[in-house]
Design a protein that fits this description.
Helix content: under 10%
Strand order of the largest sheet: 1-2-29-28-27
Order of helices and strands: HEEEEEEEEEEEEEEEEEEEEEEEEEEEEE
Shape: globular
Protein backbone atom coordinates (compact mmCIF):
# COMPACT_ATOMS: atom_id res chain seq x y z
CA UNK A 1 0.00 0.00 0.00
CA UNK A 2 1.66 3.21 -1.15
CA UNK A 3 1.75 6.52 0.69
CA UNK A 4 -0.97 8.05 -1.47
CA UNK A 5 -3.44 5.32 -0.62
CA UNK A 6 -2.53 5.48 3.07
CA UNK A 7 -3.38 9.17 3.09
CA UNK A 8 -6.57 8.81 1.07
CA UNK A 9 -7.92 5.86 3.01
CA UNK A 10 -6.97 7.66 6.21
CA UNK A 11 -9.34 10.41 5.15
CA UNK A 12 -12.21 7.97 5.18
CA UNK A 13 -11.08 6.73 8.57
CA UNK A 14 -11.44 10.32 9.79
CA UNK A 15 -14.71 10.48 7.90
CA UNK A 16 -16.21 7.59 9.83
CA UNK A 17 -15.43 9.25 13.16
CA UNK A 18 -15.85 12.88 12.19
CA UNK A 19 -14.86 15.18 9.37
CA UNK A 20 -16.04 18.13 7.35
CA UNK A 21 -19.85 18.40 7.46
CA UNK A 22 -21.67 19.19 4.23
CA UNK A 23 -25.42 19.19 4.84
CA UNK A 24 -27.91 17.34 7.03
CA UNK A 25 -25.11 15.50 8.86
CA UNK A 26 -23.43 14.22 5.68
CA UNK A 27 -19.62 14.10 5.75
CA UNK A 28 -17.45 13.81 2.64
CA UNK A 29 -13.95 12.70 1.78
CA UNK A 30 -11.81 11.31 -1.05
CA UNK A 31 -10.23 7.97 -0.31
CA UNK A 32 -8.96 6.35 -3.52
CA UNK A 33 -7.70 7.40 -6.91
CA UNK A 34 -8.00 5.70 -10.26
CA UNK A 35 -10.29 5.22 -13.25
CA UNK A 36 -12.94 2.96 -11.72
CA UNK A 37 -15.44 1.30 -14.06
CA UNK A 38 -17.50 -0.22 -11.24
CA UNK A 39 -17.75 -0.39 -7.43
CA UNK A 40 -19.43 -2.94 -5.17
CA UNK A 41 -19.63 -2.84 -1.38
CA UNK A 42 -21.08 -4.57 1.66
CA UNK A 43 -20.74 -4.42 5.43
CA UNK A 44 -20.57 -7.10 8.12
CA UNK A 45 -21.16 -5.42 11.46
CA UNK A 46 -18.61 -2.66 11.79
CA UNK A 47 -16.46 -4.11 8.99
CA UNK A 48 -16.84 -2.37 5.64
CA UNK A 49 -15.66 -3.84 2.32
CA UNK A 50 -15.45 -2.03 -1.03
CA UNK A 51 -14.33 -3.49 -4.35
CA UNK A 52 -13.00 -1.30 -7.16
CA UNK A 53 -12.76 -2.43 -10.78
CA UNK A 54 -10.07 -0.12 -12.10
CA UNK A 55 -9.01 0.38 -15.68
CA UNK A 56 -5.38 1.45 -15.97
CA UNK A 57 -6.14 4.11 -18.52
CA UNK A 58 -7.48 7.65 -18.52
CA UNK A 59 -9.82 6.73 -21.39
CA UNK A 60 -13.33 6.03 -20.09
CA UNK A 61 -14.30 4.46 -23.41
CA UNK A 62 -13.00 1.42 -25.18
CA UNK A 63 -10.85 -0.53 -25.40
CA UNK A 64 -11.23 -2.29 -22.08
CA UNK A 65 -8.24 -4.37 -21.12
CA UNK A 66 -5.47 -3.63 -18.68
CA UNK A 67 -7.08 -3.40 -15.26
CA UNK A 68 -7.06 -4.35 -11.59
CA UNK A 69 -9.56 -5.33 -8.94
CA UNK A 70 -8.87 -4.04 -5.43
CA UNK A 71 -10.46 -4.49 -2.03
CA UNK A 72 -10.63 -1.71 0.54
CA UNK A 73 -11.52 -2.80 4.08
CA UNK A 74 -11.98 -0.85 7.26
CA UNK A 75 -11.43 -2.75 10.51
CA UNK A 76 -9.50 -0.79 13.12
CA UNK A 77 -7.76 1.00 10.25
CA UNK A 78 -7.71 0.76 6.46
CA UNK A 79 -6.36 -2.18 4.50
CA UNK A 80 -5.94 -2.08 0.75
CA UNK A 81 -5.46 -5.40 -1.08
CA UNK A 82 -5.16 -6.41 -4.75
CA UNK A 83 -7.68 -9.12 -5.61
CA UNK A 84 -7.20 -9.70 -9.34
CA UNK A 85 -5.10 -8.14 -12.09
CA UNK A 86 -4.74 -8.66 -15.82
CA UNK A 87 -2.99 -6.82 -18.64
CA UNK A 88 -5.66 -7.89 -21.15
CA UNK A 89 -8.67 -9.02 -19.10
CA UNK A 90 -9.14 -6.47 -16.35
CA UNK A 91 -12.33 -6.45 -14.28
CA UNK A 92 -15.07 -4.26 -15.76
CA UNK A 93 -18.20 -4.99 -13.72
CA UNK A 94 -18.18 -6.29 -10.12
CA UNK A 95 -20.59 -7.53 -7.47
CA UNK A 96 -19.73 -8.89 -4.02
CA UNK A 97 -21.09 -11.00 -1.18
CA UNK A 98 -20.29 -12.70 2.12
CA UNK A 99 -20.97 -16.22 3.44
CA UNK A 100 -19.65 -17.64 6.71
CA UNK A 101 -16.42 -15.58 6.85
CA UNK A 102 -15.71 -16.08 3.11
CA UNK A 103 -15.73 -12.93 0.99
CA UNK A 104 -16.73 -13.19 -2.65
CA UNK A 105 -16.45 -10.80 -5.57
CA UNK A 106 -17.73 -11.77 -9.01
CA UNK A 107 -16.30 -9.84 -11.92
CA UNK A 108 -17.10 -9.70 -15.63
CA UNK A 109 -13.76 -9.11 -17.31
CA UNK A 110 -12.55 -7.50 -20.51
CA UNK A 111 -11.87 -10.85 -22.19
CA UNK A 112 -15.59 -11.69 -22.06
CA UNK A 113 -15.25 -14.14 -19.16
CA UNK A 114 -16.97 -14.18 -15.79
CA UNK A 115 -14.74 -14.97 -12.80
CA UNK A 116 -15.23 -15.37 -9.07
CA UNK A 117 -12.55 -14.32 -6.61
CA UNK A 118 -12.79 -15.86 -3.15
CA UNK A 119 -11.08 -14.80 0.06
CA UNK A 120 -10.46 -17.69 2.46
CA UNK A 121 -10.47 -16.89 6.20
CA UNK A 122 -8.05 -19.76 6.74
CA UNK A 123 -5.29 -18.82 4.31
CA UNK A 124 -6.12 -15.08 4.39
CA UNK A 125 -5.57 -15.08 0.61
CA UNK A 126 -7.55 -14.53 -2.58
CA UNK A 127 -8.02 -17.14 -5.30
CA UNK A 128 -9.83 -16.72 -8.63
CA UNK A 129 -11.67 -19.24 -10.74
CA UNK A 130 -13.56 -19.20 -14.01
CA UNK A 131 -17.36 -19.09 -13.91
CA UNK A 132 -18.38 -18.67 -17.57
CA UNK A 133 -16.46 -18.35 -20.82
CA UNK A 134 -18.82 -16.07 -22.70
CA UNK A 135 -20.46 -13.11 -20.96
CA UNK A 136 -21.55 -9.66 -22.05
CA UNK A 137 -19.50 -7.14 -20.06
CA UNK A 138 -19.87 -4.15 -22.38
CA UNK A 139 -21.57 -2.27 -23.86
CA UNK A 140 -25.11 -1.36 -22.99
CA UNK A 141 -27.05 -0.43 -26.16
CA UNK A 142 -30.14 0.40 -24.11
CA UNK A 143 -28.35 3.53 -22.92
CA UNK A 144 -26.53 5.05 -25.84
CA UNK A 145 -24.76 3.02 -28.56
CA UNK A 146 -22.44 5.96 -29.23
CA UNK A 147 -20.87 5.69 -25.74
CA UNK A 148 -19.44 2.17 -25.64
CA UNK A 149 -17.59 2.57 -22.35
CA UNK A 150 -20.55 1.71 -20.11
CA UNK A 151 -20.20 -1.72 -18.53
CA UNK A 152 -23.09 -4.16 -18.33
CA UNK A 153 -23.83 -4.82 -14.67
CA UNK A 154 -23.78 -8.16 -12.90
CA UNK A 155 -25.46 -8.91 -9.56
CA UNK A 156 -25.02 -11.28 -6.62
CA UNK A 157 -27.14 -12.34 -3.66
CA UNK A 158 -26.75 -14.93 -0.92
CA UNK A 159 -29.72 -17.28 -0.65
CA UNK A 160 -30.01 -20.59 1.17
CA UNK A 161 -26.31 -20.49 2.06
CA UNK A 162 -25.31 -20.27 -1.61
CA UNK A 163 -23.94 -17.44 -3.76
CA UNK A 164 -26.11 -16.60 -6.77
CA UNK A 165 -24.38 -14.68 -9.58
CA UNK A 166 -26.67 -13.13 -12.19
CA UNK A 167 -25.16 -12.04 -15.48
CA UNK A 168 -25.81 -11.67 -19.19
CA UNK A 169 -24.50 -14.60 -21.22
CA UNK A 170 -23.55 -13.63 -24.74
CA UNK A 171 -25.46 -15.36 -27.51
CA UNK A 172 -26.70 -15.00 -31.05
CA UNK A 173 -29.09 -13.68 -32.16
CA UNK A 174 -30.08 -12.85 -28.55
CA UNK A 175 -28.32 -12.98 -25.20
CA UNK A 176 -29.51 -14.70 -22.03
CA UNK A 177 -30.14 -13.76 -18.44
CA UNK A 178 -28.18 -16.48 -16.67
CA UNK A 179 -27.33 -17.51 -13.14
CA UNK A 180 -24.31 -19.33 -11.72
CA UNK A 181 -24.83 -20.82 -8.23
CA UNK A 182 -21.80 -21.47 -6.02
CA UNK A 183 -22.37 -23.89 -3.14
CA UNK A 184 -18.84 -23.66 -1.75
CA UNK A 185 -17.49 -26.50 -3.88
CA UNK A 186 -18.94 -26.29 -7.40
CA UNK A 187 -21.08 -24.24 -9.76
CA UNK A 188 -24.49 -25.09 -11.17
CA UNK A 189 -26.05 -23.01 -13.91
CA UNK A 190 -29.48 -21.80 -14.96
CA UNK A 191 -30.83 -19.77 -17.88
CA UNK A 192 -33.61 -17.58 -16.52
CA UNK A 193 -34.65 -15.73 -19.66
CA UNK A 194 -33.41 -16.44 -23.18
CA UNK A 195 -36.08 -14.59 -25.12
CA UNK A 196 -34.82 -11.12 -25.95
CA UNK A 197 -31.81 -8.92 -25.39
CA UNK A 198 -31.28 -8.47 -21.67
CA UNK A 199 -28.93 -6.33 -19.64
CA UNK A 200 -28.13 -5.18 -16.08
CA UNK A 201 -29.64 -7.78 -13.70
CA UNK A 202 -30.38 -6.40 -10.22
CA UNK A 203 -31.21 -9.19 -7.73
CA UNK A 204 -32.65 -8.83 -4.25
CA UNK A 205 -33.62 -11.35 -1.57
CA UNK A 206 -37.26 -10.74 -0.67
CA UNK A 207 -39.42 -12.43 1.98
CA UNK A 208 -40.79 -14.72 -0.73
CA UNK A 209 -37.50 -15.68 -2.41
CA UNK A 210 -35.19 -14.12 -4.98
CA UNK A 211 -36.42 -11.41 -7.30
CA UNK A 212 -34.24 -10.26 -10.21
CA UNK A 213 -34.98 -7.10 -12.18
CA UNK A 214 -33.47 -6.49 -15.59
CA UNK A 215 -33.89 -4.61 -18.84
CA UNK A 216 -35.14 -6.12 -22.06
CA UNK A 217 -33.96 -3.34 -24.32
CA UNK A 218 -35.61 -4.76 -27.44
CA UNK A 219 -38.98 -3.87 -25.92
CA UNK A 220 -37.83 -1.08 -23.56
CA UNK A 221 -39.35 -2.96 -20.63
CA UNK A 222 -38.53 -3.72 -17.02
CA UNK A 223 -38.79 -7.46 -16.38
CA UNK A 224 -38.72 -9.62 -13.28
CA UNK A 225 -37.56 -13.19 -12.66
CA UNK A 226 -38.91 -14.56 -9.37
CA UNK A 227 -38.07 -17.80 -7.60
CA UNK A 228 -39.27 -18.95 -4.19
CA UNK A 229 -36.64 -21.69 -3.96
CA UNK A 230 -33.82 -20.52 -6.25
CA UNK A 231 -34.61 -23.33 -8.69
CA UNK A 232 -37.95 -22.69 -10.44
CA UNK A 233 -38.31 -19.23 -11.97
CA UNK A 234 -41.35 -17.25 -13.07
CA UNK A 235 -41.00 -14.32 -15.50
CA UNK A 236 -43.17 -11.22 -15.74
CA UNK A 237 -43.13 -7.69 -17.12
CA UNK A 238 -43.28 -4.93 -14.51
CA UNK A 239 -43.33 -1.79 -16.64
CA UNK A 240 -42.81 -0.53 -20.18
CA UNK A 241 -43.63 -1.91 -23.58
CA UNK A 242 -47.14 -1.90 -24.98
CA UNK A 243 -48.99 -2.34 -21.70
CA UNK A 244 -46.82 -0.76 -19.03
CA UNK A 245 -47.51 2.28 -16.89
CA UNK A 246 -44.61 4.13 -18.53
CA UNK A 247 -43.23 3.73 -22.06
CA UNK A 248 -39.57 3.05 -22.79
CA UNK A 249 -38.38 2.12 -19.30
CA UNK A 250 -36.41 -0.42 -17.32
CA UNK A 251 -32.91 0.87 -17.79
CA UNK A 252 -30.25 0.36 -15.10
CA UNK A 253 -32.54 -1.11 -12.39
CA UNK A 254 -31.67 -1.52 -8.71
CA UNK A 255 -33.74 -2.93 -5.86
CA UNK A 256 -34.07 -3.10 -2.07
CA UNK A 257 -36.51 -4.47 0.51
CA UNK A 258 -38.13 -2.05 2.96
CA UNK A 259 -40.55 -3.31 5.65
CA UNK A 260 -40.94 -6.55 3.72
CA UNK A 261 -41.84 -4.77 0.46
CA UNK A 262 -39.69 -4.77 -2.67
CA UNK A 263 -38.79 -1.39 -4.18
CA UNK A 264 -37.28 -1.14 -7.66
CA UNK A 265 -35.65 1.97 -9.11
CA UNK A 266 -35.13 2.32 -12.86
CA UNK A 267 -34.75 4.91 -15.60
CA UNK A 268 -37.00 5.71 -18.50
CA UNK A 269 -37.13 8.17 -21.37
CA UNK A 270 -40.71 9.46 -21.71
CA UNK A 271 -39.40 12.32 -23.88
CA UNK A 272 -36.04 14.03 -23.82
CA UNK A 273 -34.01 13.60 -20.60
CA UNK A 274 -34.38 10.48 -18.47
CA UNK A 275 -36.70 10.08 -15.52
CA UNK A 276 -35.97 7.97 -12.44
CA UNK A 277 -38.99 5.83 -11.63
CA UNK A 278 -39.82 3.64 -8.64
CA UNK A 279 -42.09 0.61 -8.37
CA UNK A 280 -43.11 -0.87 -5.02
CA UNK A 281 -44.65 -4.29 -4.49
CA UNK A 282 -47.31 -4.10 -1.76
CA UNK A 283 -49.46 -7.15 -1.07
CA UNK A 284 -48.74 -8.57 -4.50
CA UNK A 285 -49.72 -5.35 -6.31
CA UNK A 286 -47.25 -2.94 -7.93
CA UNK A 287 -47.46 0.77 -7.11
CA UNK A 288 -45.57 3.21 -9.35
CA UNK A 289 -44.03 6.62 -8.76
CA UNK A 290 -41.45 9.14 -9.94
CA UNK A 291 -38.31 9.99 -7.99
CA UNK A 292 -36.68 12.50 -10.34
CA UNK A 293 -37.40 14.07 -13.73
CA UNK A 294 -35.17 15.71 -16.29
CA UNK A 295 -32.01 13.68 -15.64
CA UNK A 296 -29.31 14.07 -18.29
CA UNK A 297 -26.64 11.55 -19.30
CA UNK A 298 -25.66 10.83 -15.69
CA UNK A 299 -28.79 8.68 -15.61
CA UNK A 300 -26.62 6.04 -17.26
CA UNK A 301 -25.54 5.15 -13.72
CA UNK A 302 -27.76 2.77 -11.76
CA UNK A 303 -29.26 4.35 -8.65
CA UNK A 304 -27.90 2.98 -5.36
CA UNK A 305 -30.65 2.49 -2.75
CA UNK A 306 -30.38 1.55 0.91
CA UNK A 307 -32.56 1.59 4.03
CA UNK A 308 -31.51 3.60 7.07
CA UNK A 309 -33.62 4.25 10.18
CA UNK A 310 -36.70 2.87 8.38
CA UNK A 311 -36.17 5.38 5.57
CA UNK A 312 -35.38 4.59 1.93
CA UNK A 313 -32.41 6.55 0.61
CA UNK A 314 -31.77 6.52 -3.15
CA UNK A 315 -28.44 7.89 -4.36
CA UNK A 316 -28.18 8.87 -8.03
CA UNK A 317 -26.41 11.32 -10.33
CA UNK A 318 -28.00 14.32 -11.98
CA UNK A 319 -25.55 16.10 -14.25
CA UNK A 320 -22.44 16.67 -12.15
CA UNK A 321 -24.26 16.26 -8.82
CA UNK A 322 -24.89 13.40 -6.40
CA UNK A 323 -28.49 13.41 -5.13
CA UNK A 324 -30.11 11.65 -2.17
CA UNK A 325 -33.87 11.18 -2.40
CA UNK A 326 -35.48 9.72 0.68
CA UNK A 327 -38.90 8.45 1.69
CA UNK A 328 -40.45 6.33 4.44
CA UNK A 329 -42.54 4.38 1.95
CA UNK A 330 -44.92 4.95 -0.95
CA UNK A 331 -45.40 8.61 -1.75
CA UNK A 332 -43.29 11.65 -2.45
CA UNK A 333 -39.51 11.59 -2.19
CA UNK A 334 -37.62 14.51 -0.67
CA UNK A 335 -34.31 15.36 -2.31
CA UNK A 336 -31.02 16.96 -1.29
CA UNK A 337 -27.89 17.58 -3.36
CA UNK A 338 -24.94 15.98 -1.55
CA UNK A 339 -21.93 16.66 -3.74
CA UNK A 340 -21.17 18.14 -7.11
CA UNK A 341 -19.05 20.28 -9.36
CA UNK A 342 -18.52 24.04 -9.10
CA UNK A 343 -21.61 25.42 -7.52
CA UNK A 344 -23.71 22.57 -6.15
CA UNK A 345 -25.75 23.45 -3.09
CA UNK A 346 -23.62 21.30 -0.80
CA UNK A 347 -20.01 20.79 -1.83
CA UNK A 348 -18.06 21.97 -4.86
CA UNK A 349 -15.86 18.91 -5.31
CA UNK A 350 -15.78 17.38 -8.67
CA UNK A 351 -17.60 16.35 -11.79
CA UNK A 352 -19.25 13.08 -10.86
CA UNK A 353 -18.95 10.03 -13.08
CA UNK A 354 -19.72 6.31 -12.75
CA UNK A 355 -19.62 4.22 -10.63
CA UNK A 356 -21.95 4.40 -7.62
CA UNK A 357 -22.56 2.12 -4.64
CA UNK A 358 -24.23 2.39 -1.23
CA UNK A 359 -24.07 0.37 1.98
CA UNK A 360 -25.07 0.72 5.62
CA UNK A 361 -22.24 0.14 8.11
CA UNK A 362 -23.08 -1.45 11.47
CA UNK A 363 -26.81 -0.86 10.83
CA UNK A 364 -26.29 2.79 11.72
CA UNK A 365 -24.20 4.67 9.14
CA UNK A 366 -25.25 4.95 5.46
CA UNK A 367 -22.23 5.24 3.18
CA UNK A 368 -22.37 6.29 -0.47
CA UNK A 369 -19.34 5.63 -2.69
CA UNK A 370 -19.04 7.23 -6.11
CA UNK A 371 -16.62 8.11 -8.84
CA UNK A 372 -15.44 11.63 -9.45
CA UNK A 373 -13.41 13.56 -11.95
CA UNK A 374 -11.46 15.88 -9.68
CA UNK A 375 -9.87 17.84 -12.49
CA UNK A 376 -11.62 17.58 -15.88
CA UNK A 377 -8.64 19.19 -17.59
CA UNK A 378 -6.02 16.85 -16.13
CA UNK A 379 -8.17 13.65 -16.12
CA UNK A 380 -7.60 13.16 -12.38
CA UNK A 381 -10.03 10.52 -11.15
CA UNK A 382 -10.92 9.61 -7.58
CA UNK A 383 -13.42 7.71 -5.47
CA UNK A 384 -15.42 9.92 -3.13
CA UNK A 385 -17.45 8.86 -0.12
CA UNK A 386 -20.28 10.30 1.93
CA UNK A 387 -21.37 8.97 5.29
CA UNK A 388 -24.15 9.99 7.64
CA UNK A 389 -23.21 10.82 11.21
CA UNK A 390 -26.35 11.79 13.14
Amino acid sequence: MNTTHRILFGLLGILLTGGTPLAASWYAGTFATGNESDISSFAVGTNFFAYFARQNSTDLGQPWGNGDLFEGTYNNGWHYTPVYSSASAGAVSVSSGYIAFYRYVAHADADGKLRLSIHSPFSDAWSTQLVDNLVTFCCDPSIDPTTPGLPVKIGTVVFGGKLYIFYIAAGAPVNHLSCAIWDGAKFTYQVLDGNGNMTDPAPVVAPDGIRVYYTDYEGDILREAHSKDGVVWFLSTIDGGCCGVHPSVGRRPSAIVHNGNVHVFYYGVPSGPRWLYTAGLYGGVWSFGVVETGIDGAGDVAAAPLVHANTIHVFYLVGPNLYDSYSTGPGTFQTVVLDGFLGSSVGACCRLIPPLSAVEVNNSQPLAIYGALLDPYQSVYAVRSLTWLP
